[in-house]
Structures are given as C-alpha cells and as structure tokens.
Amino acid sequence: MAIEKEIDCWKKACKHYASKCARDHDFFCNHNSQDYKFINEFCSIKTRNTTAYNFGIYHGALESGIVEMWNFPRRVLHCFRWGLQNLSGFGQNIQTSTDARENIFVISITIYGMVLFVFFIGNMQIYLQSQTNRSEMIRQKKQKIEQSKSFEKLPENLQKQIKRYHPEKWEETKGGVEFGNLFNNLPDDLRRNIKLQLCLELLKKVEEFRKWSEELLHELCDCAKLVSYAEHVEIVRRGSSIDEMLFLVQGKLRTYSLTSVNTGSAASPPHFKTSINHLEDGEFCGEELVAWFQANLYSSNLPISTRTIQTTTKVDAFALMYYDLQNVFDKHQIARSTST
Fold first, then answer.
1. SS3 21
2. 182 plus 270 within the same structural domain
C-alpha cells in the first residue's frame, strides 16, 4: 500500500508537470525515461511537503526504506513492530492524510487497541481479586485452625512448624477448615510428631494400655488415623459389629443405649429405657475391643455394639482399627510371655 501511495504521488507530479511526462508507461523500468528529478522534488520523503502531497501513515515506511528491501523477515519484523507500537498507543502518533482508507484503518487500530486495553485491565482486576480472595481464605483458615482445641494442645514448636508450612497446602485443605483436613496434608515427619503429642496421652487413658511399653504405645500411635466427622453423623449403630476405637481430640458424641426396667411383675412384658450419655474431648469409645481381644485374641468375630453413637458437633478423632489393635495385642502377649 505504501508503494501504491508513492506511485499515486508520481502520477500527481506528472499531472502537475504535464510537459515532462504525459504517459503512465513512463514509469515502466524498461522505458527510456527523461530527467525525472522533478518527481523526487515533488514526492520528497525527507522534506515531507504535505502541501504538495501527503503520504499520511505510509510516510514512515517510505522514509525507512523498508519497501525497497528484499529481506522478507526484516520487512515482517518492521510491520510487526509498527503495528504493536501503534496498538499500544491507541494510534495517537499516527498522522493520516485525507484518504478515507487511512482514516478508517487508524480508527480501527484505535478501537482495537482500546478493546485490548479494557480486556487486559479486566483480566488484571480479576486476577488481583482472586489473589486477594485466596490470601483472605488462607488467613481465615489459619485463624480458624489456630483457635481449634487440637491446635492449642500442641507444644509451641509444633505450632510454629504448622504455621510455617506452605500456604498452598492451606489452600488445598478441602471440605472445610478443620484441623483434621490440614493434618492429612502435612509431611510425614511432622504428622507423626503431632500424632505422638495428641494420641499418646489419649491411649494412656485406657487402663490396659497403661500397662504397655512406650514402644507398643508408639506403634499404636502410628496405626491410629486422624478422622473427621460432620454434625449428626451416626458412627456406630446398635446391633452392628465394633471394628474400631475412637479417641476424641475435639468434638462431642452422644450415645444411646437400652436398659431393661424391672416392672415388678413376671407376667408383664419387659420394659426398656433409653439411656443417653455424652462423650467429649479426651474420651474414647469402642473399648469393647480391648476386653474382646483380652478374652480371645484370635477370634474371627467382632463384638456387637449395645449402643448407638452419633456426633452432636463436628468431631476430630483418632481411629484405631481392630486389625491394628489385634496385631499390637499379639506383640504385647509375645513380649509378656518372653519376659516371664
């Protein structure tokens, strides 16, 4: 288009100097031309005489000599630079002639540049807002977990290690901000230290476990898994088998059991009364497994629950499965028989 603009200037010069060139084919390369210095003066690029002829947006291309180059990559690079520079400036530095095509082209560049700018600003705002929301979410999660009873029970050095842990892991905690969700995302060594601090004292509340060595208690801690339950979840139903012991770290449980009431008459049908009890932080359930394995360690059956256990709040607890307890019981019996 720049070349077309230059040829158009040449034609205008010929019309202005009709006596010196009167035919269009005078511009052909194989034509024996006359002295055309008047064309260079009329269509001067260096002086930029807009009164004689205005090259408009093509002046820069003609002045740089890019239209005369045969190096295609350099020509493409020049065009790319020109387009990017003027898009970023909304076409403010482009000087046009009165040609309609030029003005429409510059208007298009200005509109397109503004659209890109608005699109960029919009995406930047969305990104900054998402980062702000992410930071606020992580802050709230940290605050909620630091205020939890499970966190407060830990020594200061472990609390600092958890606080220093990567923010990405705080963000990955799904299903709420309970301590148990974060615990499962911690490194193995840190998770084990936390389990020893929280679980060991809970295990020692079981009378039989207080007789065991620290080594066996540590093994029980390794087997225990931190689990979380939502409100009003039925953990054990009356009449079902007991397959785990639960040690409450935080939260509350409610137990329902039936007890027979003596009516004083042998002829009357038995009457049952529902007994309701509550379990809180530091307490446990499923202790029937301990007595069961003490009586018959290698039984293939499991004890049957005489009560229904349900959560009344969100609960974090350590779960000790029956097969893990059975294995450690076996080691305890072997160690006791060896010592005797």
1. coil
2. no
- If asked whether residues 281 and 174 sit together in one domain, one would say no
Q: Rounded to a whole number, what is the distance in angstroms from the first to the last CA of the chain?
A: 105
Could you tell me which of 81, 86, 84, 85 has the C-alpha nearest to residue 96? 86
Four-residue CA torsion sign, 174, 178, 183, 186: positive
Instruction: Please enumerate in sequence order all residues whose Cβ is within 8 A of that of 127, keeping only pairs 6 or more positions apart, or say none.
Output: none
* Structure confidence at residue 175 (pLDDT): 47
d(CA 244, CA 318): 10
Tell me what pLDDT residue 295 has: 86
Containing structural domain, residue 305: 200-339
Number of domains in the chain: 3
- Given a contact cutoff of 8 angstroms between Cβ atoms, the answer to whether 184 and 150 are in contact is no
Closest by CA to 64, choosing from 48, 47, 78, 51, is: 78
Chain center to CA of 207: 45
**167's tokens:** 């923010």
What confidence tens digit (pLDDT) does each residue in 191-214 have? 888 888 888 888 999 998 888 888
Distance CA 306, CA 301 (A): 16
Contact 140, 132 (CB under 8 A): no
Give the C-alpha separation, 266 to 12, whole Å: 129
Q: Any residues with CB less than 8 A from the CB of 263 and at least 6 apart, and which?
A: 270, 271
Residue 246 φ then ψ, to 5°? -115, 130
Phi, psi of 256, rounded to the nearest 5 degrees: -120, 125
The verdict on pTM exceeding 0.85 is no
**pLDDT tens per residue across span 20-66:** 565 555 555 555 555 566 666 667 676 666 666 666 677 666 666 67
Residue 131 located in a structural domain: no
Using alpha carbons, list the distances in angstroms from residue 76 to 3, 4, 57, 67, 102.
16, 18, 17, 11, 20
More confident site: 320 or 15: 320
